[in-house]
Amino acid sequence: MAKLDYSGFEELSPFELKDKLIEIATSSAQRMMLNAGRGNPNFLATEPRHAFLRLGDFALEEAERSYSYLDSGFGGLPEHDGQLLRFENFLLRQEKREGIDFLKAAFSYAKDHLGIHRHDLIFELVQGFLGCNYPVPPRMLTCAERIVGDYLGKEMFGAEPRKGPYSIFATEGGTAAMTYIFQTLKANGMVKPGDKVALGTPIFSPYLEIPPLPDYGMPIVDIRMNEDTDWQFSDEELSKLEDPSVKVFCIVNPSNPPSVKLSDECLARVAAAINEKRPDLFVVTDDVYGTFADDFLSLFAKCPRNTLCVYSFSKYFGATGWRLGVIALHDDNVFEKALAELPETTKAEVDKRYSSLTTEPRAIKFIDRLVADSRAVALNHTAGASTPQQVQMTLFALAGLLDRDNRYKNSAKSLIRKRFDTLELNMGVKPKHEVNDVNYYTLINLQHLSGRLYGEEFANWFVDQKKGYDFLFRLAEETSVVLLPGKGFEVVDASARVSLANLTEAEYAKIGAFARQVITEYHAEYEQGQS
Question: What are the alphabetically sorted keywords of the record (predicted)?
Answer without folding.
Answer: Aminotransferase, Lyase, Pyridoxal phosphate, Transferase
